[in-house]
Specification:
The complex is a heterodimer of chains A (915) and B (276).
Chain A: H1 4-7, H2 9-27, E1 39-40, H3 52-64, E2 69-75, H4 82-96, E3 101-105, E4 111-116, E5 119-124, H5 133-145, E6 160-167, H6 172-177, H7 180-191, E7 196-200, H8 202-236, H9 239-262, E8 267-268, H10 274-296, H11 310-334, H12 342-363, H13 365-372, H14 392-406, H15 408-426, H16 444-455, E9 460-468, H17 477-491, E10 496-500, H18 502-513, H19 528-537, H20 541-544, E11 553-560, H21 565-579, E12 586-591, H22 593-627, H23 630-654, H24 660-691, H25 694-723, H26 729-757, H27 765-770, H28 777-780, H29 789-798, E13 800-804, E14 809-811, E15 819-825, E16 828-833, E17 839-845, E18 850-851, H30 853-858, E19 864-867, E20 871-877, H31 878-887, H32 889-914
Parallel strand pairs in A: 1-8
Antiparallel strand pairs in A: 2-6, 2-7, 3-6, 4-5, 9-11, 9-12, 10-11, 13-20, 14-19, 15-18, 15-20, 16-17, 16-19
Chain B: H1 6-21, H2 40-48, E1 55-65, E2 71-82, E3 88-96, E4 104-110, E5 113-120, E6 125-131, H3 145-149, E7 161-168, E8 171-179, E9 190-196, E10 202-210, E11 213-220, E12 225-228, E13 231-234, E14 236-241, E15 246-257, H4 268-274
Antiparallel strand pairs in B: 1-2, 1-15, 2-3, 3-4, 4-5, 5-6, 7-8, 8-9, 9-10, 10-11, 11-14, 12-13, 14-15
The chains are: A alpha+beta (915), B mainly beta (276).
Amino acid sequence: MRHFWVRHARWVVAATLLATAFFLSRIVDPTSGELRLRVDPSTDRLLAEGDSRQERLERVSTLFGQRESLLVALETDDVYTPENLAAIARTSRALEDLPFVHEVLSLDTALNMRSFEGAIEIEPFLERIPETVEGLARLRADVERNPLYAGRLVSNDAQMTSIVLALKDIPLDRLIDESLDLQVEQVARENAPHMKVRLTGAPHIKATTSRLLFEGLGRILPISFVIMGVLGALAFRSIRGVLAPMATVVLTTIWTLGIVAWRGVSLNLVTSIVPPLLVTIAAAYALHVVSEFYRTVGAGEANFKGVDGPVARAIGHVALPVALTGLTTAAGLLALTMSPFQAVREFGLIAVLGVVIAALISLTFVPAMLTLGGAPERMPARRDGEPGSTGGLDRLLSTLGRFDVRYRKAILVCGVGLGVVAVVGMDRITLNSDLVSNFSSDHPVRANFEAINQRLEGAIPIFLVIESDEPDAFVKSQNLRAVDELVQWVAAQPGVGGTTSLVDYVKTLNRVLRDDEDAAFRIPDESVRYVKQILLFGAGEGLRSVVDSSYRTTNVHIRTQAMNTRDMAELVARIEARLETLPTTLRGEVMGNMVLLTRSLDDAAQGQIETLGVAFVFIFVILFALFASARVALFALVPNVLPVVVYFGTLGLTGIPLNTTTGLFACIVLGIAVDDTIHFLTRFNREARERADEKRGAVEALREVGRPVTITTIGLCMGFAVIATSELKNQVEFGLLGAFTLAIAWLVDVTFTPALCAGMRVVNLWDILTLDLGRAPQQTVPVLRGLNNAQAKIAALMSSVETFEPGQPIYRVGDPGDGLYVVLDGEFSVSIAGDAGEKLELSRCQRGDVVGEVALYHGTRTADVDAVTPSRALRFDSDALERLRARYPRIGARVLRNLSEVLASRLATATLRVG
Amino acid sequence: MSSASPSFSTLLMLLVAVSLTGFPAQTSAQDAASVPSRTLDEILDCAAANAPERTARQEFRLLVHDRGGGAQTLEATLHWKLDEKGNSKILAELSAPPDLRGSAVLMIEREGGTDMFAYLPELRLVRRVTGRHSEGSVFGSDFSYRDMEQLYHAGSRGSARQLADSTHAGRPVHVVESRAAEGDDSAYRKGVARIDKETCVALESVFYESEDEVRKTLTADAASLVKSGKTWLPHHMRIEDRKTATFTELVVDRVEFDVDVPDRLFTRSSLERRGR
């Protein structure tokens, strides 16, 4: 199969480009140029599906008519001047005329109810703009006296006024596409040119976040492409070294996003991280392939496009690790698909899709492209005397490898120590997702939010819904008093800017109907009938937003100043504790989009740690299948667990909170860290087997794999560093933490992993599948008797398979001996020297025969053994037997028993001869 | 903002009034299909003839539905009278539920505006209400005071125009569109009424806040049309406020036209006497 990409390279490239054109047409309409890939910036997908809290919130929002709103604040020296009031009225009316605005609440629209010359006057504050000092003072007094609007419509210092725009039911993507929030800002500026316009509100914050996110993507992706190209150029100093990773990255991105658009899935705030992630992963895969190509190829190689040519050979070497890394990375990400949060599930699915595509393109398109490029005419210098070297890095890696082997125990102890420190740090992890504090302190979104928050009683609304089973509960004075006490307590809490409740309406109506006497600003002592009648008099949309028609449910509007989920969670927890003290007939619940989002984000972050456990299980299963040993799989998992533990420990020790973004990264780290480990282990396995020495195998493997691993890690770190240039704090943290953790993963892979491997022999599935022990080894090789095919191969692989040329001496009398040989193919001659030094052949050994068993126990060879024909033999030394016994006890026991039988048989034969 | 000029709003409410009060039966249901299409004036004459000449007394129930699916039922009596100058007076008084019984609103139209008085029995006081009260909700329903004020008041025909005949709920209807004049501060910029050809009752009146944005829809249940004397009367209607996403059902229990309704009923002192 590996030859296919070489023999049909043109077709492979053509088919790939054709598919790319198709997927590109899914992303962008080729006729209109319109982007078909949709972006859903809403936070809905961050909420757990089927969450009863969401259903309750929807019910309450419907009942009390809650809508998404924008808040325009106009700032000036003094709101109460005729010019400024005229500008406020003009702006309010212009905003009201915008087609997407449902309703406007401002000084120009808010109805003020007051007793005036024996009548009750109901008029907007700005029905007539006062021109006199007295009139302006009266207006200010009216506003400040009205509990429904005081501090809310005009700041207490009279330097800021708010215009609240309830928006029609428009999808957020339309708001973003048409920049509706910015239109609002523009209209306000045009109508109040001499006032400072500040805009805030959840839709604006979400829209700005979305814009920054996708503007960031537009910047990050091209920079990442260039970085991968530069890395390729530095690493390989060739055109194909540049083109291969860049092409892989571009094709992977187009294919993945093409499928996403084709399936009608929208990118959201979480899945938007996938493209830069894929850039780094796809580049890593391609760099491994290209690295192996340059390791294999020779300058001007004649048989370049042959089935045994360098491309085919490179693919033969790298296909398994690349496929496996794809599988394990996909497994790590697949765990995310078990999340109850749609956004996280979609992230997992799209990332898995992208990883599979990246592996596919790296193993098909890249080899085809390398083939079409022809044999390189010159090779950059490699190691001394070898082509393709940069020298320095290889020498450094060799030195590092030797260091790892020499100080193996110290490195392992350091690794474990690091893990312990990290585990201690994990205990300090806190949950927190930034809302507005996600923006830098000088960003207009944050600056405006903070100014409005400070002056206009908070810009993040939440609700406190209080219910009762009693009919007319909230027209009874004792319940109204309980609500009043609760609301006053809430209003005094840190982080709460202001409140509006039924109590405000009742008190205001009572006062207005009693000639505006200040003493009447209270909950009336009169009967239920009285309260009902004054509420009937004041009936309207405002009242509907605080109490239902049966007076069993009331809604307290709380304007909070929370800038992140931690502040919000603390406030909600305090209010919930206070709700416990309500009369038993009343029950309350804190609600609101931000409350729900806070809980969901924190749940999602915690949930991701749980999915990390699932990811570990998935990867363990794959490693177990790969190495056919639970113990080896566990060992292989250690270098992957360590960076993840260090990552979480870093969160705890640095105070960076766990949130949806930082939680998500754990699975990514795991997936990517496993890649490097598998590359190392696979190469180590080959090198150790070829050299029959694990320590040398570890050094060689590091030198060979360390190069692409280091290059890809540099690429990954630079890619994440680019993400850190975002204007959003969580993106910055994501980028920096990503780069840091991958650097840790690299450090572990070039120190801890070789140190760990230097003391172990591994067998992988590929070895088991490809090792040829000849026909029916269980029957023809006594040492392997009683084992099944796979067990026989494992036993063989735990030993060393050695080959000999005809006449090649295997050992000589007197040599120190520490192993026995089991002949697989060919023929050995066993001889001793006669008195005259002539060679006396004692026996010939063929398939299944054992030689050298005496030295295994005695220590010194007692005969000469030579290969007579081209031969292959298994060499078991005491270490191999011990490893086999320890790692595969059942197989080891069987092999030792078989050996005992062989020895017993040999002894019996000798006894008979002597006898 | 001042009150609406009569040209648009009165025309609009004329159509509503037709739907509430019915009109003199000019044709039978049997020959409805053969009724020739009327001119605009004929349609409006037909509708105008539908309204009471001087007085009306109506007992009705308001089923005020909230957004949560709950509903409150109010029972009320409404008295209407037109004075010599063509100004209308309305007294609406709740009879149920018991907690609200006796609550009343009095509206007296005068040159350049409307005086409004509210009476709350528990307070035993009458309060004059001034300012922007006309946009307020009547007893918490989806009818505004302005809707109520102009319910029976047929005035100028303004800028009405006839649109192509159509059908509504399977019945042939005339379609009449009215537009607010420039400077008219009515809450509605445009109204479209579908007037039943057979009964001249507006089966549907759609009120637009802007050119293409519906604010309220008033529908009469054709199945509830009852012929009373010379008029057809819809006994079950529904007004839906798109902005607040709420609706109110109006069920007419009893209606009398041009009966004796004394003037003293429409005075502040009459309201005040209720508290004694």
